[in-house]
# Entry
Amino acid sequence: MDASDSLQEIFCDVAAALINYFQVEHVTVFQHRHQQQDLLARFTTGINHQPISVAIDPQSIVGFVAMSKVPLIIPDPFDTSALFAIHPRLQFVDHLEPLEPLEPLEQTPRCRTVNILCVPIIHAHTLLGVLQLTNRHPVVFCERDLRDAQTIAQSLGDSFRYELGGTARPFDHLIHRQLISDKALSGLLADKYTQLDPTLLIQKLISEHRVNPMDIGRALAIHYQVPFIHYAPDVYHVYRHEHRLNVSYLKRNFVAIIADNHDTPIILMAEPNNTALIMEIERALSFDAYHIAVGLAPHILQFLGEADNGTGPAEMNDILDEIGIQSDELDDALEEMSDDAPAVVRLVSRILHDAKHHNASDIHIDPEKSAPTRVRMRVDGVCRDINHVPASHHNAVIARIKILANLNIAEKRLPQDGKLSFKLSGQIIEVRVATIPTVAGEGVVMRILATGGALPIEHMNLTSTNLTMLQQIMHKPHGIMLVVGPTGSGKTTTLHAILGHLNTPDKKIWTAEDPVEITQPGLQQVQVNPKIGFSFAHALRAFLRADPDIILIGELRDKETAHTGIEASLTGHLVLSTLHTNSAPETITRLLDFDVDPVNFSDACVGILAQRLIRTLCTDCKTPYTASAQERAFILRQYGQDNIAELVMPDPLILYQTTGCKLCNDSGYRGRTAVHELLTMTEALRGLIYQSASVSQLAQQASQDGMRTLMQDGLQKVLRGLTDIKQIQILGGVE
# Structure
């Protein structure tokens, strides 16, 4: 729940060290809350079920230290005369002490508090909080202890000034962590559309700037100084008395009233500083006690059940339970459930919503003979079993999907392609649908299309060498550049990143795509439709009559498109396209198989970029370790002795491995990144193409010209701590 989980973990380690060093029972860090002008016990080694709030005044030891910014040693807090000598109103407030130590040094029910050391935590002359050490054994604190505690407090202030002190703007912490530039953030905040719609701002941060939603939540939590809660229906549920408030009112203000497993009410808000709104909710619900948390607007709408027709689908287990009951009640003589049955409608809706929530790229609905239908989702390139649907309801589910995608529900013998869309948190999500008849029944594969704008080229995770070479290729006045790889390797994302870099007012850019997944202002984007004869080749010929500077062709699927694309590149146009090949050198021989003239192709081609997507380690749980001799040998063998000097391999070599946490579902991986293989056309390569050289000869020459293979690029990312050797072994099919 807390966005400062990382700080909490650090505090646990620091607290254990402080307990041993100072020989104390308790360590507490009080945080200065600027809005409330008080102190909150943010971290403590004691167990206390209620948050401890302390006023900044001379009536408590912690409050006095915060007010005066003067450290104190109190040998006996019950000595009223000693406290009076410090300040006439100073007193010891016993309930501010932890009720029970986390790891007590003595197994006693409750020890009398003695020996208190309090020092202010200050950064840039600003009070951030107070560090308190309690119950020193066996002697009292001395001046040396005071100096050491002040040094520790200074380090806490310097290291965690944002976490403890907050930020001026809600998303400033993203700038601090270099997840977005100040210029880019200021541009988003100044946009009139994002000012009117908070969901649009979050969408742009995620889609256009590739900021993780959890990082956005952490930034908001630090700014507002309250916990961050993301959409987690297994942990939080809608509060039982939430119906007293109008749902439209809650959606309009981006507020959800939720509760944890203890049924403690939590007011989840996009803007927790809206005190007027909090007071209205208090009056409506008559809370005795509650917590306040910050959430992202899309997540809040999910809690409120934002979905088609304004109602969210029920939980998957409930729907399957309902279907199971209905299936048991069906007589063998009765027909299977209709495609418009309520449970089927909700089931399909739930599958789509869950897929988007888990950031899945594909949904697979696979029939089985005499067994339930499997529902699988591909997350970070790996298929996962999600649920099973009773076989009696398979046809109804498939029919429902077909209706949504405008397909022929009566045709079950031939494959069909279509597209559907659904609404999630106010955002329209498009899905490409493909049905395939199997011996067990019709199977369906749904591809969730990318949303948002183009990825900045700086976020493509290219090596500095590849980025320089790619920028040189992009600024060629004419020629053809190809991005190659299998389906789902990010080719379209890369092409649009390149177009986003080239998209200036002085350039006329046409694109022909199937389908149009990413839209950019300034581009003329066309959806091809082979069913009516409007193919890539037809679109390309039409573009040539429309005075283009840059042309993007979705794919060189056939000889006609390949020939036309190369001809266009030779007549003064920069042509970008894709091809399904395994490597950059193999692409050359593949195009020559299309009967492309070798001379024309070698003159036209300016570069070929092959890429794959590999899983990246979870940044919250990855752990360093010393590489073994076998792993060092693997890196040396796969990178090659000719280029090994490029790698910086210290001894010992520190790599990273998976651990697993709640954020990555205990997999150890979260997200994917691309590995690249960039071939630039040189005179030596052109000569080999004229001679119809083999793939190995082309690859050898390209390596001498500066190309690094997918494996070599992946190993560089291993050394940077982005992934592990296991993913590189999967990439190359080697051990």
Observations:
- Residues 1-5, 97-110, 306-314, 325-337 have pLDDT under 50 and may be disordered.
